[in-house]
Amino acid sequence: LHTPMYFLLSQLSIMDTVYICITVPKMLQDLLSTEKTISFLGCALQIFLYLTLIGGEFFLLGLMAYDRFVAVCNPLRYPIIMSQRVCLLMVLVSWAGGSLDGFMLTPVTMSFPYCGSREINHFFCEIPAVLKLSCTDTSLYETLMYACCVLMLLIPISFISVSYTRILITVYHMSSAEGRRKAFTTCSSHIIVVSIFYGAAFYTNALPHSYHTPEKDKVVSAFYTILTPMLNPLIYSLRNRDVAAALRKVL
């Protein structure tokens, strides 16, 4: 499993694991406790880590599409193009891009005065739910944040679209049915994960406020902060012969 694809998958697994640790333990504590409270610093830390990891996963899933493009379209040159240096650079870009989002939005969000109700109608400190408690007009900031999130979605989605367009063209010109099957198997897990993750992210960050209600937001947030990170390892493991073979060997 010491190949570029599995190195990138290991980083995705780290992001998913930390992602769940940010929200689920606190949510379970609140469900079992009568005092469902979080400190100001704890809320700020939760927002920062959440933004960093969701941003990092945006970029990583986009860059993983390039890895699949090289594997299908340039299989003989794959070890040279996807060198260790390139893989490390892809991971660093993903983490740095996510961290930049966290460093930009967290301080501004927590700088607004919250002089009214302190009750967050959510199971964790998500920015839209926190901003509803502010006693000042946050519409300009919300518009800028909306533009920032849409841009963060468009960059990796454009990367994914170009990569898979090239992959489809290559697969279309393949004469071997076995080659087409292998190409589909190589890309199917990534396509499933991307569809689930970006679909939920699109609802949260790109749809206008008129489509949002607190109940819907909670369901969608639970979907991509809890369910998606749980599904990712299963999707990549159960649909992957190499992982299944390695697991049998370990057992």
Description:
It is a single chain. This protein is mainly α and 251 residues long. It has one domain: Rhodopsin 7-helix transmembrane proteins (Rhopdopsin 7-helix transmembrane proteins), CATH 1.20.1070.10. The chain contains 9 helices and no strands. Helix 1 crosses helix 8, helix 2 runs antiparallel to helix 7 and helix 6 packs antiparallel against helix 7. The two termini are 16 Å apart. The mean pLDDT is 84.
CATH superfamily: Rhodopsin 7-helix transmembrane proteins
Shape: elongated
How many helices?
A: 9
Helix-residue proportion: over 70%
**What series of H and E elements makes up the topology?**
HHHHHHHHH
Short structural description:
The chain has nine helices and no strands.
Q: What would the keywords be for this entry?
A:
79% helix, mainly alpha, 9 helices, 251 residues, single chain
Topology:
Blueprint lengths: L3 H29 L7 H34 L4 H4 L2 H28 L15 H5 L7 H34 L4 H30 L7 H25 L2 H10 L1
Helix pairs in contact: 1-2, 1-4, 1-8, 2-4, 2-6, 2-7, 6-7, 7-8
